[in-house]
Design brief:
This protein is of the alpha+beta class and 143 residues long. The protein is 37% helix and 29% strand.
C-alpha cells in the first residue's frame, strides 16, 4: 500500500494546526498505534514550526507525507536561506525554544536534513508504523 498527501501552505502559524489535523486524521483512520501517532505529530509540529520561525524569506512551504509499506515519511520543504544542522547547537531539555532538531532526531527512525543555501532546506523524517489489531492499515498491509 502506498498513500501520498502533499500540502502547499502559507508560512503562517495556523498552517501547523491544519497540517496536524489532516495528517493526524490519516493516521487515525488507518489505525496507527497511539504512541507512534503522537511521535509523528510532534516531529511534524517541530519541522513545520521551524519553517515558520526561521525560513523568513519564504512565503510558503510544502509538507508531503508518504505511507510506504510500514513506514511513514514526512518531507518539509521551504524556500528560505537554508541551514546547516551541524551548526545548530543543543539546548537544555527544559528550554522553551531551540530543541526542535533534537526532538526530531530523538523520535524519528531516520532523519535527513538537506541544506540548499539561498534555496531553502528539506527535512525528511521517517517513522516505522504499527497498527492496532484489525485496523484498516493492518488489513491493507496484508494484501
Amino acid at each position: 500500500m502506498e498513500v501520498t498527501i502533499a500540502l502547499r501552505l502559507p508560512r503562517d502559524a495556523a498552517s501547523v494546526s491544519v497540517t496536524r489535523q489532516i495528517l493526524g486524521a490519516e493516521l487515525e483512520v488507518l489505525g496507527v498505534e497511539q504512541d507512534i501517532k503522537e511521535d509523528i505529530m510532534l516531529m511534524l509540529t517541530e519541522a513545520c514550526s521551524n519553517v515558520i520561525r526561521h525560513a523568513t524569506e519564504a512565503d510558503e512551504y510544502t509538507v508531503s507525507a508518504q505511507l510506504v509499506a510500514d513506514k511513514f515519511v514526512i518531507t518539509v520543504l521551504d524556500t528560505g536561506r537554508g541551514f546547516d544542522p551541524d551548526e545548530v547547537g543543543t539546548s537544555s531539555p527544559m528550554a522553551e525554544h531551540g530543541r526542535g532538531l533534537q526532538i526530531m532526531r530523538a523520535l524519528a527512525d531516520d532523519v535527513r536534513f538537506i541544506n540548499r543555501p539561498r534555496q531553502g532546506a528539506i527535512v525528511c523524517l521517517e517513522k516505522a508504523l504499527k497498527y492496532t489489531h484489525d485496523s484498516p492499515g493492518e488489513l491493507l498491509r496484508s494484501h
